């Protein structure tokens, strides 16, 4: 089906037109993908921070194939191969000693699980999130997502959520109280265009949560799994959340999500569940992915600096291998298109910001190729 020349026509006829696309990708290897006409692209979108180990990393492919030959699915009524091993590893890299894991199939589902856990363990119903934040498109995750264009058509939404300006601790203090179940925050706002948290902001949230009894929930769907040079971006700020949500880069493109909750914070039997979550193949892919990231994690800061220096004329916001460049609402689509014509894939995030989230395995020479194309496209 992938190479069917009529697949674009079939898509337009039978698939709900919820996405805008102009390129058909049929193959990927490392940092590169190829379209249906054989053109090669350096992929600095990487499935939007999903293909953390590049496309079709041999160790991940081998783990998936080996497990698929043994057992593809078994209900969570039984012990699932690789699930306990992955849970142990996620607790270890999260730094939340004594924590526990619940697995999901996506970032939105991970955030749904965090919402449910916060409500049932605190006995409270309200949340606070931040303007320009993004936490998913299911109804509950959309309830804590600010963007009016995707939120308002589906209202009224639950749970109830107040929104404050990103970085405004004073406004947060005024709103947070004994009825607040949790405060949802991205350590770096990805969909907004790679906007880092102001200095001291995450520590301030931690203090407010400690004072009010609300749970601090860090959405690391885009920033986690080594993307910022640490396993999770909150580790760069020296704070620990009560719950961290994970997806995207966790399994190199195999659909998966998870939450890790601190010690003493857990679902009881019957309070949550999922048919497919934490399946044998997904867990095998995630374990292999973590193994690859462990090897390359020490080099992320060095690659980050190479991007920063190569794109310095554009004043980029660089956090590990998350790069945002202000282009402007009118200019960004043109820059994105010119990069594509030059064989480099990037994308426009919110507010006219160009976003790069390349594979963590990207090489120095590939960084130079990307930077050259981006600089030329702005010129």
Automatic annotation (TrEMBL):
A GO MF label: transaminase activity
This protein's name: Acetylornithine/succinyldiaminopimelateaminotran sferase
UniProt-listed SUPFAM superfamilies: PLP-dependent transferases (SSF53383)
Family stated for the protein in its record: Belongs to the class-III pyridoxal-phosphate-dependent aminotransferase family.
Keywords: Amino-acid biosynthesis, Aminotransferase, Pyridoxal phosphate, Transferase
Pathway in which the depicted protein is active: Amino-acid biosynthesis
Cofactors named for this entry: pyridoxal 5'-phosphate
Keyword Transferase set for record: yes
Any matching Pfam family: Aminotran_3
Transferase among keywords: yes
GO BP terms, alphabetized: L-arginine biosynthetic process
Domain of life: Archaea
Protein species of origin: Methanoplanus limicola DSM 2279
């Amino acid at each position: 089906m992938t190479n069917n020349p009529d697949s674009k026509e079939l898509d337009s006829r039978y698939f709900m037109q919820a996405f805008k696309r102009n390129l058909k990708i049929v193959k990927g290897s490392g940092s590169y993908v190829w379209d249906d006409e054989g053109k090669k692209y350096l992929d600095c979108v990487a499935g939007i921070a999903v293909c953390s180990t590049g496309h079709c990393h041999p160790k991940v492919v081998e783990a998936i194939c080996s497990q698929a030959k043994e057992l593809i699915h078994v209900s969570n009524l039984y012990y699932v191969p690789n699930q306990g091993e992955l849970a142990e590893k996620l607790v270890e890299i999260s730094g939340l000693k004594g924590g526990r894991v619940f697995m999901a199939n996506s970032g939105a589902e991970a955030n749904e699980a965090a919402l449910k856990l916060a409500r049932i363990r605190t006995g409270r119903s309200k949340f606070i999130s931040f303007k320009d934040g993004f936490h998913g498109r299911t109804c509950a995750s959309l309830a804590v997502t600010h963007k009016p264009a995707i939120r308002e058509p589906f209202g009224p939404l639950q749970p109830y959520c107040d929104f404050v300006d990103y970085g405004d601790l004073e406004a947060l203090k005024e709103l947070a109280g004994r009825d607040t179940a949790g405060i949802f925050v991205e350590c770096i706002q990805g969909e907004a265009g790679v906007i880092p948290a102001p200095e001291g902001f995450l520590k301030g949230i931690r203090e407010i949560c400690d004072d009010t009894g609300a749970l601090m929930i860090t959405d690391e769907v885009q920033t986690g799994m080594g993307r910022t040079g640490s396993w999770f971006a909150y580790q760069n700020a020296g704070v620990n959340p009560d719950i961290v949500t994970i997806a995207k880069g966790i399994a190199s493109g195999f659909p998966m999500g998870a939450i890790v909750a601190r010690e003493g914070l857990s679902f009881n039997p019957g309070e949550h569940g999922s048919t497919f979550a934490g399946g044998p193949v997904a867990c095998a892919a995630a374990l292999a992915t973590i193994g690859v990231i462990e090897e390359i994690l020490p080099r992320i800061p060095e690659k980050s600096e190479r991007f920063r220096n190569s794109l310095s004329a554009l004043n980029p916001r660089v956090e590990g291998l998350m790069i945002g460049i202000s282009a402007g609402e009118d200019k960004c689509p043109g820059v994105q298109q010119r990069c594509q014509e030059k064989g480099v894939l990037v994308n426009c995030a919110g507010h006219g910001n160009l976003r790069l989230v390349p594979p963590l395995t990207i090489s120095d020479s590939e960084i130079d190729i990307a930077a050259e194309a981006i600089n030329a496209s702005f010129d």
